[in-house]
Amino acid sequence: MHLFASLPPETCRLLDSVPALIDKTFPLPGRFRASLPANVAELSRLLTSSRGERSLSYLGRPNLLSAYLRYFLPWNLYRLCRLLPGLGLNIAAGDVITDLGCGPLTLVSALWISRPDLRDLPLEFRCIDHSGPVLEAGKKFFAALVGGSCPWNLHIIKENVDTRAHAHKHSVKTKPAALVCAVNVLNEMYGDLPHSNTEELKRMARHSARILHNFASASALILAVEPGIPQSGQFISLLRSALLELRRPPLSPCTHAAVCPMPGGFTARGKREKKRWCHFAFETEDAPKALHRLSAAAGIPKERAVLSFLLAGPIMADTHGAGKTAPQKAPLRIISGAFPLPRNRCGRYGCSGQGLVLLTGEKDRIEKAASGALIEPVFSPNGERDSKSGALLAEV
After folding, report:
1. Which of 219, 273, 228, 275 shows the shortest CA–CA distance to 253?
2. What phi and psi values does residue 145 have, to the nearest 5 degrees?
3. Tens of pLDDT, residue by residue, the chain (396 residues)
4. Which of 2, 173, 223, 360 is most buried, most CB within 10 Å of its CB?
């Protein structure tokens, strides 16, 4: 399936209604509205450059919760609505879906908006988060979004599932799920780590994998979505390896179970030189106009949305040799924007079972191969590599 396809009209209509729906559900007194852009900017700072100043209860502050609901919730809904339809989740009637660190029920709402085929199915959601105010806000928002009866059964669970703990077990008792999700939450565990502390990042990835695995049935899918920054890309690559050790192969965006050619991290020459990391960027021209206006007022406009993610599959019966070999004919996943090359040509980087690939061609052909697309490249017959990146050369 094509990742990050353009939104269909119904999804656009529902997303466009979200800012007004939030205002109606969570009325903001006029005297506080003028400070909303500043509160959005403050919350963005606490979530990025000043994470150390943030407490676990930061969303218990009314001004920050209001900023989260009006800015981060709609943008996260938008990202998920671009991602979820292309994953082929195959959710069936009666399935249990467990969402760790669910926040204001963002994943549940995104599924309702972007997967209309699921709205009539009886589904059971286990929504787990440590913040009571956020969970209550999520319940109110989802009820307003649905606007009536809904066959989805939502269990709201106030609990802190912390991957920093050394224990693999969790205190939450739920039925093994058909889909386990962790969306924009795992970075809260590793975001304060120094970039040089790779061993601790590996440990956190192994423990995160085990926790996700423990919530899942043997046939379940596991979905992790993280910000599209270098450290998140490195964590997703390590999580991929850890889930493979638990016999859960990557299904997307990976086209193979060989060694990840985009591990992220930093080179031996210092922190400033980043390795390539797996992330996807897409234009946001179809995001709600009201959301764009708030973003501009807060000084953080978003012309592109970026994320890193991993969808892992059911437990394999036998993984002998997994991670060592890959089909030579596996398709290539495009993982970068287009950039100019000599002689009026363009390139994009791609991921394959043979490693990192530099896809080259005429500008119009390269630009059509969008980030996230699957293509069948024509590799250089002599196995030539790019002198700068070391990537295999291929044509589109």
Report:
1. 228
2. -65, -45
3. 578 988 999 999 999 999 999 999 999 887 778 999 999 999 998 887 565 555 555 676 788 899 999 999 999 999 999 999 999 899 999 999 999 999 999 999 999 999 999 999 999 999 999 989 999 999 999 999 999 889 999 999 999 876 555 444 455 667 899 999 999 999 888 877 887 888 999 999 999 999 999 999 999 999 999 999 999 999 999 999 999 999 999 999 999 999 999 998 876 655 556 678 999 999 999 999 999 999 999 999 999 999 999 999 999 987 454 444 444 567 899 998 889 998 889 999 999 988 999 999 998 889 888 889 999 988 888 889 998 889 999 998
4. 223
pTM over 0.90: yes
Inter-residue contact 21 to 162 (CB < 8 Å) = no
Supply 99's token pair.
């969402």
Residues 6+ apart with CB under 8 A from 65: 59, 133, 134, 137
Q: How far apart are CA 104 and CA 185, in angstroms?
A: 12
- Dist. CA 119–CA 32, nearest whole Å: 36
CATH of 9-312, one of 3.40.50.150, 1.10.10.10, 3.40.30.10, 3.10.105.10: 3.40.50.150
